[in-house]
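---------- Forwarded message ----------

FYI, see the ATP-dependent DNA helicase RecG record below. Original note from H. follows.
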Amino acid sequence: MQGFFDTKIEFLKGVGPQKAALLNKELNIFTYGDLIQHYPFRYEDRTQFHEISTLNGAMSQVQIKGKIRSMQTIGEGRKKRLVVQFADGTGEIELVWFKGIQWVMKKIQPGMEYLVFGKPTAFGSKLNMAHPEIELITRQNQEASYLQPVYTTTEVLKRKFLDSKAIGKLQLYLLQQAQNKIRETLPKNILEDYRLINKRAALNNIHYPKDQAHLQKAQFRLKFEELFYVQLRLLKLKIARIDKFKGAVFHDTDLLTRFYNDHLPFDLTDAQKRVIKEIYKDMRSGQQMNRLLQGDVGSGKTIVAFICMLLVVGSGSQAALMAPTEILATQHFQGLKEFADQMGITIALLTGSTKQSERKIIHQYLKNGDLNIIVGTHALLEDIVQFKNLGLAVVDEQHRFGVAQRSKLWQKNQYLYPHVLVMTATPIPRTLAMTLYGDLDISVIDQLPAGRKPIKTVHRYDANRLKVNGFLKEQLEVGRQVYIVYPLIEESEKLDLNHLMDGYESMCRAFPDVPISIVHGKMKPDAKDYEMQRFVKAETKIMVATTVIEVGVNVPNASVMVIENAERFGLAQLHQLRGRVGRGAEQSYCILMTNYKLSKEGKVRIDTMVRTTNGFEIADTDLQLRGPGDLMGTQQSGVLDLLIADLGKDGVILQAARGAALSIIDKDPDLSNVENQVINQQINSMKKTAINWSRIS
């Protein structure tokens, strides 16, 4: 039966080799299975006819029926348009075409009764409809009461007569043939527990729903199934890893206790203590740890990582911390060296700019075990870097490293895989974390250290520039430093953006006696580092920069962040940038500058930033605004090969699907019970490389 859905699309009636080649290239549709899972992205409501007298410009697309009173072409050349007066006895509306005029004129004639579908637009007291669909009234379409599916297509396909309607016809023909080939892919008890309709009914009603109620049931069933199989796959991966990979056992807490009692300069938050307990439990379990540590900028992830390193070093092993940039690696190293020196622990820094002579010594000490902790960049992944006994690998800002790079660190211990702690300051919404990192255990630091004042965020329009500069002057006079961030380096004619250099010059004019740094992505790395270091040492008081300062530099004295053209940034980026200030005990400020023209989305982003500093709330809003593809680079990673589910909107369904998958894996990890045979059958029908197990293969 599965063979039917593997049939090449060219064999479907109405397709053929030429159209098949276009569907392959434009929409990735190669087989019957690909087509039947090319779901509509919206539906046109054809369930009722409206009277023209009831129409208004606020309505979305409507269906009307009536007769053509008159038709005429107006204008010449490119300004030529066809105008048709259309009436139904209750009123009159103008139908207008700017393109395909000859084709429409051949198709329609006055006096005949037509069905028209389109969007009414108001011009003064008159209504018109531009480029509506128009067809002669027949007995079928006059009685028709249905939701018409609208499918994604492309300009290339439209030119070859494969528009949404044509794809819909192919779907109808395929569905007729497929009825007795569609098999159930979920166990009976799940269908009953979650009140899901069967697979055949779901596929019929997703393409041609009788009404909204049938459509909602079909969408719920298909989304649930898709998310269920995503979660099942991740849970099976996790079980396989736990069974396969044993981990070193670390339970010597002497070093950790000594640090805690004698050298820790501040109290840990309850959240930090909770996370340390979770990690300690993993490390003494005998299984290899794979844990994701999430926490906002400044929540104290690095000190948690160091305490975990003490557990490893105290048990005679080594620890490594890998960061994405030299600046960040250096900052981690400087922060940890102070503690390591107090504890009599050896620590070193290895980056691309470490001198050859120093490298040799580091390599030697790592290999013979004299070096306890190494902090570095990608340089740690080089084959020449060998450890005597690597027990813990900490990866900072995980999304900047690929899985292949991470796994290179795992290979650095020939006896047992090291424990892995992945840290990120990018708050990942719960739904996305469950799907992206469902095979990792997740810990969250959701508290800021005591004494940190929340950053005050305000929105100001460009017209308030003088007032803003006055505020900056006050802050500079009391010894603070200021960041000013611009979205672009080069002027773009299309985008009305403040040019970085213009911004730099206007700051120089506004603050003639203040030393100012400038940093952007086009500068050479050493020039960039030089300017950054000047700002860190407070030799310069204002830093004008692009987003290169987003991750990393810690300047406790910088208490003001001005973000120019804030509407041009994504929410996650705005939140990351804001996290550059608020590192000290002083009150910090973030000023979002925009012009008056704000899109609806831009307004939501700005309002969210002003309202909250909670990274997870911000990440949830970001997911709803942008969808998962843009966040975390998930499209490239192939983790989200989703056909119908939307992580921004389907969090509740995801929770239910994960619950169902967990209960099945708990009771029957090998899926050997009779009732789970349909799941086994579905998984076995998939290619070994498949990521989405819910597909029709």
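H. also flagged this: Residues 364 and 611 are 52 Å apart (CA to CA).
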